[in-house]
Design a protein that fits this description.
Elements lengths: L5 H55 L7 H6 L10 E2 L5 E13 L7 H11 L5 H8 L6 E7 L1 H10 L4 E10 L7 H4 L1 E2 L5 E3 H5 L1 H6 L5 E2 L4 H18 L3 E8 L5 E7 L12 H4 L15 H10 L8 E2 L5 E3 L2 E3 L9 E2 H7 L2 H11 L1 H10 L24 H7 L9 H12 L3 E2 L16 E2 L3 H17 L13 E11 L2 E15 L6 E8 L13 H19 L10 H7 L35 E2 L4
Parallel strand pairs: 1-7
Antiparallel strand pairs: 1-2, 2-3, 2-4, 5-6, 8-9, 8-18, 10-13, 11-12, 12-19, 14-15, 16-17, 17-18
Helix pairs in contact: 3-4, 9-18, 11-13, 11-17, 12-17, 13-15
Main location: membrane
Pfam families: PBP_dimer (PF03717), Transpeptidase (PF00905)
GO molecular function: carboxypeptidase activity; penicillin binding
């Protein structure tokens, strides 16, 4: 076979190579372009997604920063203990979710460094105490309970391994000292330790969604506490108690015991500060007890308000002698015995009624058992056993029997409200709910006692409690305090039990001042008429408008018809102009409110 010339052969080879490489180059270019398109699509999708996220974050999420209410939502978890509120819905006690710090010492490699850091974040902790806990052998130790959010954040920033937080609750008391003896307080584990927190601990835990509503009015509470503090300061007293009471329902509208305490931190306080003088303290009430001696006498049917009793000759029994603080040296009507707070007249009235009737009446008034008030701090009365003649005599003017201020107020309410005893309560009575009550004196006796209350303020020892337009009535009381087996003449309890309006009684205001000291302003006296009665008047003047009690013309015929009484025991106001002293009833001397106690008779 003959080969073609070399030039022709080269052309044929080049043509063959060219013909075969064209399809391969085209395919490679097509494949490369496809890959670029896929890559571009993926990149576009990714950056588009990123762009959408950025738009959402910047325009719809406020820059992506967490909003404040997100953090708050974590702390609004339902608590395990119900709130306590006053009659108007004001918060007195509530629970807030908190975090408590604990540690597992086995997980802490350098307890000294951890303790140093922790104390730097929480300066209130003690380094030695923290170091001792973190270097111990226990697997669980509390470091601090109930941290604030700021404290929790500070500990978080330390980043110490082995430390954690436990969700707990802490009780807070927005009213502070104002209701401390009523509401009480809880311990570190949220268990009630005093007051309603203790008395209703089971109810508060079992029904946390329903607040416990009290009969207390925080506005009245403020007025009462303010005036008691002012009186303590003026007379340099060691303490006081006060109560505002609804005579129609038995509700306690306000109650204060001083000194009080901060329920947020009650630990380490003087026991005297934690002591509730209004309900737990029992005292010889002095002349305020003549309210019940007079009611007993009138209700017995054996004595009328116009009857007279010897107030001249002292009464001797055994080695004791009973006198009047300021004797008028003449016979006194029952109205005058109450007006001038005569011990001699009171004793002789009790002698007419008899020991058995007196003991039964005092039991009916609740003076032989604790009150029904829902506070666990309720004192037991101290009554004589056996109840002898000398006991009957001293009880007639408020000595020889010890009861709490709450006993006195609840019983006095029944004497002026028509004769019905309503058990005292600190819980709000629901509208339309039946009000428990027992008739303890007749309506006729109650009507006469209202007149005698009014007579003490218009013509007797309680004039400084009067408030124009509110028809105030009441009874003074001053009793020497017993220390050991003897009475201290310069250590006394001065009180005033006021009520208003006497033509249609609605409220009692009671003030007790413990060991007041006389001042130049009171001419050297520190008795109930000089110390407690003015405080009651100031309180009534402020709370009357808050309670929607209308003022009236005290000289109006309808008011006088319901409240008038004179020294002779007459209720006919038209026969003599009101507020005009009779010859038989001179104005009492200053300081005639003391219920003196039996003194040893002089030996011959």
């Amino acid at each position: 076979m003959t080969l073609p010339p070399p030039g022709q052969l080269l052309r044929r080879v080049f043509a063959a190579l060219t013909h075969r490489s064209k399809p391969s180059a085209t395919a490679a270019m097509e494949q490369t372009r496809y890959r670029l398109m896929v890559t571009a699509a993926v990149v576009t999708t990714v950056f588009s997604a990123i762009g959408v996220k950025l738009v959402i974050a910047t325009l719809f999420s406020h820059g992506g920063e967490p909003r404040q209410h997100h953090a708050l939502e974590l702390d609004t978890t339902t608590t395990n203990r119900a709130d306590i509120i006053d009659r108007n819905g004001n918060l007195l006690a509530t629970s807030l979710v908190t975090q408590s710090l604990y540690a597992d010492p086995k997980l802490i490699s350098r307890p000294d460094e951890a303790a140093r850091k922790l104390v730097s974040a929480l300066p209130e902790l003690d380094y030695k105490e923290v170091y001792g806990k973190l270097s111990g052998d226990k697997r669980f130790v509390w470091l601090k309970r109930n941290l604030t959010p700021r404290q929790q954040y500070a500990v978080h920033r330390l980043g110490i391994p082995g430390m954690s937080f436990e969700r707990e609750e802490r009780r807070f008391y927005p009213a502070g000292n104002l209701t401390s003896h009523i509401v009480g307080f809880t311990g570190v584990d949220n268990n009630g330790l005093a007051g309603l927190e203790q008395g209703f601990s089971k109810r508060l835990n079992e029904d946390p969604a329903t607040p416990l509503q009290l009969s207390i009015d925080l506005r009245l509470q403020h007025v009462l506490r303010k005036e008691l503090i002012a009186t303590i300061q003026e007379f340099r007293a060691i303490g006081a108690a006060g109560i505002v009471f609804d005579v129609r329902t038995g509700e306690v509208m306000a109650m204060t015991s001083l000194p009080d305490f901060d329920p947020q931190d009650p630990t380490g306080l003087n026991p005297e500060t934690l002591f509730n003088r209004a309900t737990l303290g029992v005292y010889e009430m002095g002349s305020t007890f003549k309210i019940f001696n007079s009611a007993l006498a009138l209700d017995s049917g054996k004595i009328r308000v116009t009857d007279t009793f010897d107030a001249v000759h002292p009464i001797k029994i055994g080695r004791f002698t009973i006198n009047d603080y300021h004797s008028l040296r003449r016979a006194l009507t029952v109205a005058e015995v109450f007006q001038h707070s005569s011990n001699l007249g009171s004793v002789r009235m009790a002698q007419v009624v008899g020991i058995a009737a007196q003991r039964a009446f005092m039991a009916k008034m609740g003076f032989t058992r604790p009150t029904a008030l829902e506070l666990p701090e309720s004192g037991w009365p101290l009554v004589p056993n056996p109840w002898r003649e000398v006991n009957s005599m001293t009880i007639s003017f408020g000595h020889g029997i010890s009861v709490s201020p709450m006993h006195t107020v609840a019983a006095a309410a029944s004497v002026i409200n028509g004769g019905v005893f309503h058990p005292p309560t600190i819980l709000l009575r629901q509208p339309g709910a039946p009000i428990p009550g027992e008739q303890v004196v007749s309506r006729q006796t109650s009507d006469m006692m209202r007149r005698m209350f009014r007579f003490v303020v218009t013509e007797g020892t309680g004039k400084s409690a009067g408030v124009k337009g509110y028809v105030v009535g009441g009874k003074t009381g001053t009793a020497d305090k017993q220390k050991g087996r003897h009475y201290q003449k310069n250590s006394r309890m001065s009180s005033f039990l006021g009520a208003f309006p006497m033509h249609d009684p609605r409220y009692i205001v009671y003030v007790l001042i413990d060991e007041p000291q006389a001042t130049a302003k009171t001419y050297g006296y520190a008795t109930g008429g000089w110390v407690a009665a003015p405080a009651v008047g100031r309180i009534i003047k402020q709370i009357g408008p808050l309670l929607d009690v209308p003022t009236v013309d005290e000289s109006a015929p309808e008011i006088l018809s319901a409240t008038y009484l004179n020294a002779a025991g007459s209720t006919n106001w038209a026969q003599q102009p009101p507020n005009t002293p009779t010859a038989a009833a001179p104005n009492p001397p200053k300081g005639s409110t003391v219920a003196s106690v039996p003194a040893p008779a002089k030996t011959r």
